[in-house]
Amino acid sequence: MIKTIIHNTQQLAIIIKNRYQKDGVEFFTPSDYSQQLAYMSHKKGKKIDAHIHNRVSRDVYLTQEVLVIRKGKLRVDFYSQEKAYLESVVLESGDVILLASGGHGFEVLEDLEMIEIKQGPYLGDEDKTRFEHVSSDKLDIKQ
């Protein structure tokens, strides 16, 4: 239910499949990631302490993003930092992915609705380097 994509000891992504279930709180990311990803399941009546988030200065050198698939299917193609194609995974309704490092590209396989969450502000072309997608005859789709 949890899939981790790793290349040369570098974590590229964490996928939480829509069937994942566990009581309580489960964090999937190390504390030094600029995006923190957790799953929470609580019973009716559970109170979570009221709180505010303190203003804290952080240095962010790499954009990490979370995608929540609300509807449809999306193929995610993973690439090394050197733009070499590695493998692909298909996400479906209810799946969540944290893209932590390396490169990625997408192909919509069924009409898609998704939510993207990442650090801002967005800097346009300064934020990313675009490159050629893998050809369909070289796809290696993992489960």
CATH class annotation: Mainly Beta
Described by strand count, sense and barrel closure, the largest sheet is: 7 strands, mixed
Count of DSSP strands = 9
Total domains, how many?
1
Morphology call: globular
Radius of gyration: 16 Å
The CATH architecture comes to Sandwich
Mean pLDDT: 94
SSE ordering: EEEEEEEEE
Individual helix count: 0
Span from first to last CA?
A: 11 Å
**Class inferred from helices and paired strands:** mainly beta
- Beta percentage is over 45%
Question: Within the CATH hierarchy, at the fold level, what is the topology?
Answer: Jelly Rolls
Which percent range fits the helix content?
Answer: under 10%
Low-confidence spans: none
Structure description:
The protein is mostly beta strands and 143 residues long. The chain has one domain: Jelly Rolls (Sandwich), CATH 2.60.120. The protein is 0% helix and 46% strand. It has no helices and nine strands. The strands form two sheets. Strands 1, 2, 5, 6, 7, 8 and 9 form a seven-stranded mixed sheet that branches. Strands 3-4 form a two-stranded antiparallel sheet. 15% of the residues are buried.
